[in-house]
Specification:
mainly alpha, Peptidase, Mito/Outer_Membr_Metalloprot, globular, 21 helices, 468 residues, protease, metalloprotease
């Protein structure tokens, strides 16, 4: 992630959520994060996982191409929250892990992604900002607090803010708020139509998108949710279903099923999410009568590892590797178990096997090889550790935790300036700009002026970060 881009991302994210996101629903996540959490995300539990990221990228790439967008220029971010939710901010699509867990088929998740791509391709976020500015102007003219506050309360579910907003509904602010909500409902409907177009272009079924809305409607009914549709930032699920049922059934691909291989990958991802968020109990709830399936056994192995039983977890993942010896994620997870058990040298071999088998060439796995070498502590291998981690960072420069291990490797080699520079870059990628500048200043003193390392440190020192 670029150095200025991270701060801009946070500003955009705040705008998207607090001013009613362009999404299924926008609720700031509160679940306890798991997997590999991005250290820089204080409010949003962003997680990194090579297996799930590769799956979601495969879901999104054809949709993005159908929308005329470059897959390499749109980032998919996983949010560790079990609520069914997705939203856009800037050039990023945020998807809750709960969306994948609740989606029984790949097609359901693909439908959600298609909807969010509709917002990106339509430039809805930029126009939303214009609408918010217009609504706030109306509120100021009326001498009131502003539509932005009331809209944020109604959309986010904040009782205090929503209560404040409700007191303004008879005023000029209320008029502005209703206009803003009406605009957003129109954009949501437009995104639904765009999603159907993208699915048609990619020969995919729109049934998953329809199933997602039907699921949301059932949950609303069971929860006793009854809202004034006119004051909702999104069209009510039942209204959207009415349109989608008619349009979706017109698609020649409506009855098309996901391939067995894709379904298996999807279920592996669901099993991992279930295990990390609820242990063995959540795996059992998610897979019911399929507890002897490969995905359920995978989830059980992960849950066993998380419960503090590395030997049992290793036995379970080894049994799965016998059944699927070329599954890179099984070998990656084997490496994680071995790392936890203090067997770093064996973990290095497992991660290396995973990287060799990984067709997506994840930078996360590549960096894990170097991290295992550093943890192993053999001085003669530290140069190899540096090379492995740098290779991973070339593919995934946003992997902030890898910089910490890179700094450790440089430290063991006695290259203190490089260690401090790696520390500075890690802090920067994690969003800790103050400490990044401190270490960049320290590192720069150890390099020859205008050398490549000196310039990298200078980039950090001179880059101004706009505060939200």
């Amino acid at each position: 992630m670029g150095r200025v881009a991270m701060k801009e991302w946070r500003r955009q994210l705040s705008t998207a959520c607090l001013a009613v996101a362009l999404a299924f629903s926008c609720v700031m996540p509160t679940a306890t994060p798991s997997f590999a959490q991005s250290a820089g995300q204080r409010r949003l539990p962003v997680v990194r996982d090579a297996e799930i990221e590769s799956l979601v990228r495969d879901y999104a790439s054809p949709i993005l191409k159908a929308a005329g967008l470059s897959p390499s220029r749109v980032e998919i971010v996983l949010v560790n929250d079990l609520n069914f939710n997705a939203f856009v901010a800037g050039r990023r699509i945020f998807i809750n892990t709960g969306t994948l867990l609740d989606s029984e088929t790949p097609n359901e998740t693909i439908g959600v992604i298609a909807h969010e791509v509709g917002h990106l391709a339509g430039g809805h976020q930029e126009r939303l900002r214009d609408q918010i500015a217009r609504a706030q102007t109306i509120a100021v003219v009326a001498g009131l607090i502003g539509a932005g506050v009331a809209a944020a309360g109604a959309a986010s579910g904040s009782g205090a803010v929503a209560g404040l907003g409700s007191g303004l509904m008879t005023s000029g602010s209320g008029i502005a708020q209703r206009g803003l909500f009406s605009y957003q409902r129109t954009e949501e409907t437009t995104a639904d139509r765009s999603a159907l177009t993208y699915l048609q272009k990619t020969n995919q079924s729109p049934k998953g998108l329809l199933d997602s809305f039907e699921g949301l409607m059932r949950k609303n009914m069971l929860a006793g949710i009854s809202r004034d549709t006119y004051l909702s930032s999104h069209p009510a699920p039942q209204d959207r279903i009415g349109f989608l049922q008619t349009a979706a059934h017109e698609s020649p691909f409506f009855d098309k099923k996901d391939s067995p291989d894709l379904q298996l990958r999807h279920d592996f991802a669901r099993a991992k999410i279930a295990a990390y968020n609820g242990g063995a109990a959540q795996v059992r709830r998610s897979f019911g009568r399929q507890l002897h399936s490969l995905p359920a056994l995978y989830g059980d192995a992960i849950a066993t590892h998380l419960a503090g039983s590395p030997k049992a977890a290793l036995d379970k993942i080894d049994a799965l590797i016998v059944k699927q010896p070329n599954n890179p994620w099984f070998h990656e997870f084997r490496g994680e178990i071995l790392m936890t058990a203090g067997r770093a040298n064996e973990a290095e071999a497992a991660f290396s096997k995973a990287a060799k088998l990984d067709p997506w060439k994840s930078g996360l796995i590549q960096a894990s090889i170097g991290q295992a070498i550093v943890t192993g502590g053999r001085p003669e291998k530290m140069k190899d550790a540096v090379a492995q981690i740098q290779r991973g960072l070339e593919a995934d420069p946003g992997n902030s935790s890898a910089y910490r291990f890179l700094a450790m490797a440089y430290g063991k080699l006695g290259q203190i300036g490089d260690a401090e520079l790696a520390t500075a870059e890690g802090y920067w990628e994690a969003g800790n700009f103050k400490d990044a500048k401190v270490f960049a200043a320290r590192a720069q003193q150890k390099f020859r002026p205008n050398s490549p390392q000196w310039r990298r440190a200078q980039d950090i020192l001179v880059t101004k970060v706009k505060r939200p």
